[in-house]
Amino acid sequence: MKKSSDILVIEDEKEVSETLGQVLYAAGHNVSMASSAKEGLKMLKDIKCTVVIAELRMPDMSGSDLVRAVKNIDTKISIVVITPYLFINSAIEVMEDGAFGYITKPFNPSEIRIVVEHAVERYALMDEANKKSYYYDLSILDGLTGVYNHRYLHEVLDREITRARRYPQHFCAIMTDVDNFKKYNDTNGHMAGDELLRGLTNLFVRSVRNLDMVFRYGGEEFVILMIETDKKGAVLAAERVLNLVRLSLPTTISMGISDYPADAAEKDVLIDKADKALYQAKITGKNKVCVA
Questions:
Q1: Which one of 8, 24, 83, 90 is least enclosed by Cβ atoms within 10 Å?
Q2: Which one of 103, 132, 161 terminates a domain?
Q3: Domain extent for 55
Q4: Which helix H or strand E contains 291, and what residues bound it?
Q5: In angstroms, rounded to a whole number, what is the distance separating the alpha carbons of residues 267 and 264?
């Protein structure tokens, strides 16, 4: 069993806090409740906490101010904001102030469970990094872009396959490659190429759901894992990202998608099939999405 974590929920609506509490208790976490931002901040000074889940729009404090106040108490705490789907853009703005992510209302218990699990992992990494005096864990993060690296991809795939077998569900791997990247580098220089990759990963992270994960696979290749998503949903997400790249950056991308378990039951086969789908996208004109 996973080690339980100490979580503080800051929420002024009793029904919402009770629903969250039920999901978190069922997942094995220790949960404390506060009905106002000020009460929550006072509690944080007296209890050890790894994750704070807080309503984005509390009556007594803005989301941004609450995030900053929590970080002033403990920079390691992962903050997850609660937001109606219509206010996702506001949640993303609060992430710029230091929030880890968000969950949307009405609640999806699976989304809550996965986002909180990732938030707990992030706290553990920060805690370990502080103990060892280096930023995060250099063994799992890509130094250039800040997203997860190739090595960690395989650990996550093992975990997600185990989860998908326990709770029968799909997830998809989207292999992504920057079109004509060598030409871009040769024309604009390697510093511009590095900046392009950072801009691209920033767009990826902002464009996918908080429970999805972005990895640098190597060079100009990336993998996006779409959790609890079948191939149809992954295609829609990939096409949205592809169009955003086309509109926002001086490049295009090609993407290949494979589905667990529809296309593969093993991680290496899953990645191989996504890579072959990517190759098909590249040889048939680039700037498109192909599926296994």
A1: 90
A2: 132
A3: 6-132
A4: strand 289-291
A5: 7
